[in-house]
Design a protein that fits this description.
By secondary structure, this protein is of the alpha/beta class. The protein has ten helices and 18 strands. The strands form four sheets. Strands 3, 5, 6, 9, 10, 17 and 18 form a seven-stranded mixed β-sheet that branches. The chain has a six-stranded parallel β-sheet with strand order 13-12-11-14-15-16, sandwiched between helices. Strand 14, helix 7 and strand 15 form a beta-alpha-beta unit. 51% of the residues are buried. Bound molecules: zinc ion (ZN) (2 copies). One zinc ion binds next to loops.
Length: 346
Amino acid sequence: MKAVMVNQPGGVSALVHVDLPDPEPQAHEVVLEVHSCGVCFHDVLTRNGTLKAGVRLPCVLGHEVAGTVVALGSHARGFKLGDRVATTQRSYICGHCRFCRSGFEPLCTERVFLGDVGLVGGYAEYLAISADCIAQVPDGVDLDHAAVAACAVGTVLNAIRDVGKVQMGETVLVTGAGGGLGLHAIQVARLAGARVLAQTTSADKVDLIRQMGAHEVVLHARGEPFAPLVRELTQGRGVDVIVDNVGTLLFDDMRKSLGIQGRWLMIGQLNGDFVPFNPAQFFLKNQSLLSVTSTSRRQLEDVLVLMQRGQVTPVIERKLPLSEVAQAHLAVEAGHTTGRWLVSPR
Ligand SMILES: [Zn+2]
Ligand SMILES: [Zn+2]
């Protein structure tokens, strides 16, 4: 099969086009014929060497995959040949540790992140994956949309609904609102009944951000403060919840934007930088720092239902052939994308 491998971290030339043997399913696995795969900032961080934890090279990147089941292992349950499925961000979970048993399988101690380990990822024609790590795609949901359901939408559903417990009437600030997570976070926060403030430095993304349901757009020049604008929009109180898709780059302004008893939901970190802070800045206001990583299968299934009902619209900007994956990496790395880019081996 055709695949794109990373042998050594580096620039986009580290994405090497190769022919690999077609995968055979292990007992608990299914083999998917890949229809499309989202290109995530995570892929850029793995490829350029910023992300090292849990990475084992050489690897075939790609953890946002939708496709069709073309082979089943002897113990793979719940799926049949021809099923349309979408992946979570993992290729393996143990299924019986305390996290797997309590709905928190993204934290499984034996988890394998799909695409970061070995020659198992979505930048390929086929993919062998544990049946525990995929979900059926309901009728009426396009496979291109299903590909990004877990990572681009499920992660913010996890943050906003399950960890942040956003309540009707609260005010939510979404940072990096024009990005792949941000555009979906706006929709999910709005569905939760929140007033949504959307931070961006891209004037050209403002219309789309409003279309997604943002009540207010916090537009500012790169490197300029935005907390005063948030304060103004909240009558000086600050927001109840921050959905933080950016991380340290905006740290101080996010801190100044968060109100008393605010919850800070950390999802994204775009570089390897650290920030200093004083814990008293948070506890004197009873603020909570919370965090989320990836998506359980249950959350993926819930997102797919929201898509089927039209309550969440996945924002796909472009779909490229797998042969042009380097172009997608350049665009995602430069922050030039508006919504997800997909690659497809078909
Ligand atoms: Zn992703
Ligand atoms: Zn487990």
